[in-house]
Amino acid sequence: MKLDAPVTGGPCWTELGTSDLDAARRFYTRLFGWRPETDARQEAGGYTVAHLGDAAVAALAPLYQPSQPVAWNVSFAVTDADDTARAVTEAGGTLLLGPMDVFDVGRFAVAADPGGAVFQLWQAGTFPGAGLFNAPGSLGWVELMTRDPEGAMSFYPRVFGWTVAPSDRYTQWGIGGADFGGMVTMDDKFPPEVPAHWLPYFAVADVDDTTAVVQRHGTVLMVPTSVPDGPRIAVLRDPQGAVFGVYRAGDET
To answer: Which PROSITE patterns does this entry report, sorted A to Z (predicted)?
Structure first.
């Protein structure tokens, strides 16, 4: 990710919805060295913000609805959640929740693109988003997994104004030339029950060491792999079933 702070249209936050908040706290603290702090207000519902030093880097939360899957979610920064929500539906997407205020910290909405991938909109109030990117333990890249790449390349630039750098190997998303993510077409290697989704990648000091930790406590879906002219990456799954990626900090993505 070339972006190093929340930028309008870009990824600004990632949060985990999990079936076992205490277990997730232990797992990710062990893996990334996070310092989790749970909001004590009853109306916050156990929402827990993970920190590296003084910087907020991600959130962990219980499942709030029976239909909510165990998964990592990606939020994109917007200046007006209501206007962007309308743009989502006008571009063929679906509004799933909101827009609604979260105390004084911001206004958010949950939406899905035409291919079914769910994402969030975040209009900052007192909280702009992650305070650290690309450093070990923080968000470093986001990747759309979709069965409708053509639809995605039409939808996201229309909603967020993204630039698109397509290639035969890998399509990348950017804002003003600063790439922050990419897109993978889901082929027959993906079971049909796996929905389109956004996958966050966290920077780590050593992909192989991080993968070894996950092998003892979670599942390795893609072993550490060096991408030609790119980073070393792995795709992992935590004990509750949430999938995420890691890449070596300092590598160009």
So the answer is: VOC
- The model's pLDDT over 147-184, given as tens digits with 9 standing for 90+, comes to 999 999 999 999 999 999 988 779 999 998 789 999 99
| Cα 179 to Cα 9: distance, rounded to the nearest angstrom | 12
76, 54 in Cβ contact below 8 A?
A: no
Number of domains in the chain: 2
Q: Can you tell me which residue has the tokens 């004084």? A: 104
Q: Which domain holds residue 55?
A: 10-124
CATH number of the domain bearing residue 51: 3.10.180.10
Predicted confidence at residue 229, as pLDDT, reads: 80
Residue 132 in any domain: the answer is no
Q: Count the helix, strand and coil residues of the chain and give each as a percent rounded to the nearest 5.
A: 20, 45, 40
Q: Which two tokens stand for residue 57?
A: 């880097």
Say if residue 44 is in the same domain as residue 66. Answer: yes
- Cα torsion through 111, 114, 115, 119, rounded to 10: -20
